[in-house]
What does this fold into?
Amino acid sequence: MGAIDRDGYRFETEYSVISQKGAIHVYRDGEFIKELTFSFTGEQPVPSLIEEVVDEFFETSQKCE
It folds into this structure.
């Protein structure tokens, strides 16, 4: 699972199969901004779950502006 670049942000995913938890680290201009956490089942998170977390980040950040 590679990084996602969108609207000037970079989202890097890491996860643990044993704990069934993951995190997406959000960067902007190389600077760490935030960690987004999630849970999943199976061998790895499905790409659509990662996309949902990223989409939610944008929805939430736009509400704060």
About this structure: The two ends are 30 Å apart (CA to CA). The helical segments are 47-64. Residues 47-64 form the longest helix (18 residues).
